[in-house]
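Chapter summary example.
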Amino acid sequence: MRQSLVLVAAVAAISIGFLQMRVNAAESSVVAVVNADPISRDALGKAALQRYGSDVLDNLINRHLILQECKRRGITVTSEEVRGEIIRVAKKFGLAVDAYLQLLQEERNITPDQYSNEIIWPMLALRRLVADRVEVSQEEFNRAFLSQFGEAVKCRMIMIGDQTKANQVHAQAMADPKSFVRLAKEHSEDETSASVGGLIPPIRRYMGDSRLEETAFSLADGDVSPVIQIGDQWIFLQAVRRMPASHPSPQALPAINEQIKDRIRDEKMKDAAAELFTQLQKQANVVTILGNAEAEKSHPGVAAVINGQQISIGTVAAECIKRHGEAVLEGEINRKLLHQALRQANKTVTQADIDAEIARAAISYGYVRSNGQADTDAWMEAVLSQGDVSRELYIEDSVWPSVALKLLVEDGITVSQKDLEQGFASAFGPRAEVLAVVLSDQRTAQKVWELARDNPTDAFFGQLAEQYSIEPTSSSNFGKVPPIRQFGGQASIEKEAFSMKPGELSGIIATGDKYIILRCQGFTEPVVDDMSVVRDELERDLREKKLNIAMGLKFDQLKETAEIDNFFTVANSAARVATRPAAR
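The structure predicted for these 584 residues follows.
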């Protein structure tokens, strides 16, 4: 017994020691080892810089501008103030600090350090910098209070995009105000309110468009307003009733007052901060070097210069790793696995392979010249216009991995005669037209099947589908579903569908957690009778499908059989609550 305890303790000590080694390794030059092949922190930083450097640098420049202005004006934001603001925000959502920070990380992928340094600190600094512009006046408070708790008018609304039609409907409402509900349902183009007879949320003063508010408050109960234009819509209201102002309890009033002031202050701060940013950017001397090949030669190791102060490339790379390290490292690990597999298979990705894959992608998305050749220029223009991705990154992250996997599996891909015959039947052969009822339990399925057998008509089967089917399409279309093709991936359903004759009822088909009953209505005519006409196209498509499946399986195999030590993820797995902003 004693020996067992000693052994367990020894194993535990070794495990803890190994875990510590992993954490320590993450702080050193190696962030991961893939089949004994290391990935260095420098390599990770370079990869992260390529993908996210521009965005991260922009954020750093803005933060430096704020910091420089704070220093110039003698403003300091302490770690205690940052922590206090996090506590205040968490309380506003009714959460403990740890729970709030965990929610941010899970829902928005924002770490505690990132939240402190990139959101809370700049916000507090900006508040200080624009404090003289964001004071809440008594008039602003009173208007906001009235918009939340003041007198309101409950109204119905009709919104119509055409002025002539709006005037016609308005005339009907004026002639018979009691018809307003019906007219809203029939004519209003605001679907949300039309479905409830034109009812909209109560209108209070200072909520939005003053014309709409003045119109609502000028009406007596039951009155119909004139037609007014709001944007490109024509609107008129009917007052339902006046709602008196509400009065919060004395106990709740202090918290409500603080919430209202916070909301006004935040809204004013956004505008003031935007103005301040514009002002700081106009006044600042910012030289962006990262991404400018000529500037990088004359300023090695420098990403930007802000009013004479340098931001190093190392700083930007470290920030990129902090924000995006895990995702980028996953990509680097995958790339390493593919490189290793190519070496083992004695295969190499050539430029011709890259060009062929780009051409294939262009054709598959319809970028084809009049001569039938791929329009790769237009395709690349479309790809690069969708974001900040460069041609090099598109090739490295999308094209190269696809080519590498194809090279690893293409020798094992064959298209047999049986594949062609099944593919032809699936794509061009007859399809079974059926009515279907989809059910969630066998007992109900048995009941419905007996009812359908006792009354064998399409009309009655459709009624059963409407009443019992849990699948929306068959329920709303009286059992009608898209025609079923052969070899489409639902073998049990296909077998039953193609074994029936028109008017016949299937058995109860169990598939997954569902039970299906079919009624055959007939079969469609084949689209193409002669397979030789489409053989080349069919063979190409089948090969492509088989290739894609094999590529996915190959990549899964590489991942499952690899020995991967991800030190970076281990070191960052424990969530940390930031207590102070990063040193500046």
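To summarize the output: Residues 320-411 form one domain.
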